[in-house]
Write a structure and sequence with these properties.
heterodimer; A: 221 residues; mainly alpha; B: 303 residues; alpha/beta; Rossmann fold; Alpha-Beta Plaits; four-stranded antiparallel beta sheet; 10 helices
């Protein structure tokens, strides 16, 4: 199966090109535990570290989203790739494996400490799930905003910074809008979070779809 | 998607590429049959690289269409790339890869990759598989690009200034060894180069591009046989008002009038000789470089 062989090479190439980001992700995910241990002692490592780690490591999504496409266009290696008979959809699929792997790593790394420390004791209550949903959506939004910019801009730095800015702005606007809406209407807490989540998810999906469209349709590297 | 085997290697109809206001390729219609080598010549900015990039499906035309090996480049770009080898002017192979990794990566992309050909080329070019791409000199990088372009035994090889940076020995090996073998096997080669000697050695047909348009096209031998330079000595240094039909360039220096004429015939020579003011006339053969220069200079003068 030639295509499987090709996918393996492409996965290796993506890993090799973005291994610095993987290393940074590891740092973002583990540093809070170390800092918690140093500042509050071993007894608070898991409860303090886990949530900070989970939140901080979401930044990795902006990094990976901003470099996945723009990085190759900036160093012009995308041009070399374009000469080769690799279907765009295959490239697109392989590129998405990396953020998925990062997401899996971040959540699997932090899930045991969260469960063990009982930081979020009512984990499976609506409140607990909302917090995790917010964090996951923020990560998704960071990735999608950076991915969109990465597909149209040739600079990874601008894509990453732009992704962070756009995501932060949209999050702030969503929060303000939700607060405004909820003060006037029903229960602020639950409804507010729901509105923010819906807006962020919708925005993420739109950004991702447009970025993917650009990547799949563009003829030039 | 279905491509017949007797379709031309390359066929473009009204191919046009515009970059903003600049016209890079202007309504280019080419038909290159399978087999043999075609030399695409032209001064800098003539549109050679743009044309090749459009043929390779990595640049979308503004207008017109291109078919390569019977396949529509716009619709079947991946299939085209599977059957075409391409050596660009600039090489952007992943710099962090080792040569063996670059080979492995490309090998996984092509269904027709031939390990024997690849190994032969490695040895012929003296490439060390363990060496990193970023440590290769320009010449070695070109050799690697050539190796990657021919190891899948393409039916069509598109070479955009492929020999720049190669030492004379490697150039000779590539031209007389690799490319000659490819041509002898019935594969088609399209080569764009400023090194006209190399084109002369390899190509049997040439086309000269100027400002995105095809000035002239034809069998190289035929062009060289039918295009001659006439050197006339003028009595008083003033150029005769009439020029023979097919004049592509003319120049007067002192009493010497030089004209390059296409489709030369004894009648045309006689016509020039009998012009008022012409004292003496000499007919000279042209080499490819002179032919190319005269066509381009003639075009520039006419504008």
């Amino acid at each position: 199966m030639t295509w499987i062989h090709n996918v393996r090479w492409l996965l290796w190439k993506e890993y090799r090109q973005h291994r610095t980001i993987l290393f940074i992700t590891l740092l973002l995910a583990t540093a809070p535990y170390v800092l918690a241990a140093l500042s509050a002692g071993w007894s608070h490592v898991w409860d303090m570290g886990s949530l900070s780690s989970l939140m901080l490591s979401q930044l990795a999504f902006a990094l990976i989203g901003g470099t996945l496409i723009a990085g190759e266009r900036a160093d012009r290696s995308a041009e070399f790739q374009t000469y080769l008979p690799i279907p765009r959809r295959r490239l697109w699929g392989v590129k998405l494996c990396l953020p998925l792997a990062i997401a899996a790593a971040i959540w699997f790394l932090n899930a045991p400490p969260i469960l063990w420390s009982g930081t979020f004791r009512p984990l499976f209550t609506r409140e607990g799930l909302t917090i995790f949903a917010m964090i996951a959506t923020a990560g998704l939004n960071l990735f999608c905003c950076a991915w969109l910019l990465s597909s149209v801009i040739k600079s990874s730095a601008i894509s990453v910074c732009g992704g962070l800015t756009v995501s932060w702005l949209s999050f702030s606007i969503d929060v303000l809008a939700a607060r405004h809406y909820c003060h006037l209407k029903i229960d602020p807490g639950e409804m507010g979070y729901a509105v923010i989540l819906v807006f962020l998810l919708a925005e993420s999906l739109i950004c991702f779809a447009i970025g993917s469209w650009f990547f799949l349709r563009r003829v030039e590297p | 998607m279905i491509a017949s085997n007797d379709a031309p290697a390359i066929e473009t109809v009204g191919l046009t590429k515009r970059f903003g206001r600049a016209m890079a390729v202007n309504n280019l219609s080419l038909k290159i049959p399978r087999g043999g080598a075609y030399g695409l010549l032209g001064p800098n900015g003539a549109g050679k690289s743009t044309t090749i990039r459009m043929l390779m499906g990595i640049l979308s035309p503004t207008a017109g269409s291109a078919r390569v090996l019977g396949l529509d480049v716009a619709k079947d770009a991946t299939l085209v790339k599977q059957r075409v080898g391409y050596v660009p002017e600039m090489h952007y192979i992943y710099r962090w890869m080792r040569i063996r990794e670059a080979i492995g990566f490309c090998r996984s992309c092509f269904t027709s990759w031939n390990d024997r050909v690849c190994q032969e080329m490695l040895e012929r070019f003296g490439l060390d598989p363990e060496k990193k791409v970023k440590h290769l000199s320009k010449g070695m990088l070109t050799k690697l690009a050539l190796l990657l372009a021919v190891s899948h035994e393409p039916e069509l090889l598109l070479l955009d200034e492929p020999l720049s940076g190669l030492d004379p020995l490697a150039r000779e090996e590539f031209l007389d060894g690799v490319l000659r073998t490819i041509c002898d096997q019935g594969q088609t080669v399209l080569i764009s180069s400023h090194m006209l000697d190399d084109v002369r050695r390899l190509a049997d047909t040439v086309g000269i591009l100027y400002e995105g348009q095809l000035l002239v096209e034809g069998s190289l031998d035929n062009l060289l046989t039918t295009t001659k330079r006439l050197c006339a000595t003028l009595r008083d240094g003033s150029r005769p008002a009439q020029t023979p039909e097919g004049t592509i360039w003319q120049h007067v220096q002192g009493r010497e009038w030089t004209i390059t004429v296409r489709d030369i015939s004894p009648e045309k020579v006689q016509q020039v000789q009998s012009l008022d003011g012409v004292e003496h006339l000499e007919v000279l053969d042209l080499d490819l470089e002179e032919l190319f220069k005269d066509f381009v200079k003639g075009q520039r003068t006419s504008k």
